[in-house]
Amino acid sequence: MVELHFTRIMKVNNPKVDMSHAVKELQSGGLVAFPTETVYGLGANALNPEAVRKIFAAKGRPGDNPLIVHIANLEMLEPLVKEFSPIAKQLAEAFWPGPLTLVLPKSDLVGPEVTAGLDTVAVRMPQHPIALRLIELARVPVAAPSANTSGRPSPTVAQHVVEDLHGKLNVIIDGGPVGIGVESTVLDISGEVPMILRPGGITAEMIAQVLGREVAMDPTLAGASIEETPKAPGMKYTHYAPQAPMTVFVGSEQAMVQAIQTQAHQLEQEGRRVGIMATVESAAQYANGLVLEVGSRHDLGTVAAKLYAVLRQFDSAGVDVILAEGFPAEGLGVAVMNRLNKAAGQSIIRV
Ligand code: TXA
Ligand code: MG
């Protein structure tokens, strides 16, 4: 059952601002949304089972989808895990604080409501001064999924959290827009070959370079068919999804623009309201539809940063269908295409 709360919205533009109210809420089992460098998180004390259960209720999140535990320093990690292998140490040194989540063998301290009954726990140290300060002051590890209603695009500004969760949590810390815009890379290092369960800001190449060995991608992420169960339980759900059905076009820029324009024209003739997800480079070439720019094709960081906000804008505009340009699945493009494919429910057209 979702408890109703008075939701206090606090503007915090630097970590020196007084956050004691939010800190007290976390310590007493409340829910606090806060900015991270990837997306906004919906936090609760990870060691308080009742508080953790409130996260699932507020989001409408399936109980079999485990949470990431956020820490502010390495001392907080020790009690949470059974072992911190040399590989894990190497990666933490290279990428923490930052958008890399490590799946590690959990200690008995971490309850089944956090890990959905798995014997591993996902941990990350976020690289956002407000997140770090909040966790440090609370002195508890903070379980936090993205602060959206389950299935909707993750929040990249505090207003998205307000839209989805107002009245269902105690505090929203408004720290302005996030930097990266897509969720952290989730990496499983329990097997022989480290495996990316969810692509994100830290790419396979970056991890491989630090470890000096190959990094695999969960094979269930790649194909259009999802017959096997992905290893990150959350990856099996329709996610990041706007309300209107969406199709992603993949091909050369010119071919994509042409195919989208043709389809947009046809759909409008049929009386449908069409949203087009374009880039700075292509936007002016479309003659039909509501055209929104999602950043520059030549800097995928700008695309990641705007992706979820643009999906939400299409929702607010009430379009019937969304046609989106695709991107090369390289570097950060792997994460961007993973989110686009999921938002589109695997509806991809190669042109
Ligand atoms: O950037 C992020 O990671 C954001 C910010 C708030 O830190 N958080 C986030 O959390 O995206 P969430 O709950 O939306 O996604 C967590 C993902 C899910 O796909 C979940 O299945 C996976 O991590 N996960 C969590 N614990 C796991 C575990 N023990 N083994 C495998 N996958 C796990
Ligand atoms: Mg999420």
Characterise this structure:
This protein is an alpha/beta fold. It contains eleven helices and 16 strands. The strands form two sheets. It has an eleven-stranded mixed sheet, with helices on both faces. Strands 14-13-15-12-16 form a five-stranded parallel sheet, sandwiched between helices. It is globular, with a radius of gyration of 20 Å. It starts with 7 loop residues before the first strand and ends with a strand. Threonylcarbamoyladenylate (TXA) binds next to strand 5, strand 6 and strand 10.
Record the strand order, biggest sheet.
Answer: 1-8-2-3-7-4-6-5-9-10-11
Could you say which structural class the secondary elements and strand pairing correspond to?
A: alpha/beta
Q: Low-confidence spans: pLDDT under 50, at least 5 residues?
A: 223-227
Present as ligands are: threonylcarbamoyladenylate, magnesium ion
Strand content of the residues, in percent? 15-25%
* Whole-number mean pLDDT: 94
Inertia-based shape: globular
- Total DSSP E strands: 16
Alpha-carbon Rg, integer: 20 Å
From the N-terminal CA to the C-terminal CA, the straight-line distance is 46 Å
Share of helical residues: 25-40%
State the helix count: 11
N-to-C SSE string, H for helix and E for strand: EHEEHEHEHEHEHEEEHEHEHEEHEHE
For the biggest sheet, the summary is: 11 strands, mixed
